[in-house]
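Usage

Read records sequentially. Each one opens with the input sequence:
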Amino acid sequence: MLLLAFDVAGNACSAAVWSGREVVAHVSEEMERGQAERLAPMLQSVMDAAALAFSQLETIAVTVGPGSFTGIRIGLSMAKGLALATGRPLHGVTTFALHMSVLSPAVWRDGPVMIVLETKRDDFYVQMYGSNQQVLGPAAAVPSQELASYVTDLIGAEAVLNLAGDGAKRAVTEMVNTLGPRLYWRESASPDARDLARLAAVEAEARRPPAPTDPFYLRPPDVRRPPATQRQAER
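and closes with the structure output:
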């Protein structure tokens, strides 16, 4: 399978090409701004490194969120444009599934796992999974002060909980006074487009349905329309 994957949902912009059974080209840059300017050159660079034309691709994979509003929008716009131009299928992957894919299999033997994504606000993006990796309840944006209640409502007051994801360490700190002995922070590598390519290739070959290729937002954007008086003053 020839697959182009890119992830712009977090604090980095990364792209990878999967060919056969492995990643053959990869690039990643840490950035919180400038993804719109960097993404197209980055995709061209990995395709050049893999000695492939876009017309040779079989699948295009992209993270759909949750994460950065701007990054998700940029990534999905590019992915849909490429899919339209090449006639190739588009494979969506949630950020939660991407973080799950880099966990050690041993983690799942110890009870439920909650993927916690950092929002840099007073809340977290969370998704709970059972030890069989099945979803337990809907994904949510949970305020810090309500996180312990969210956990006990889903898995009870006695169950051990494993936490993973880039917000897991802060989440443990928020809940330690209430649930401390039950919490286990499972530190793992930050996933990027290499992991996305690997996961999308496995899912595509197994004919598993991809995530919908619509933006996966868990709360509305922070941008607000200015008051009418301010809009009039700006004219």
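Summary fields computed downstream for this record:
- Residues 229-235 have pLDDT under 50 and may be disordered.
- The longest helix spans residues 69-86.
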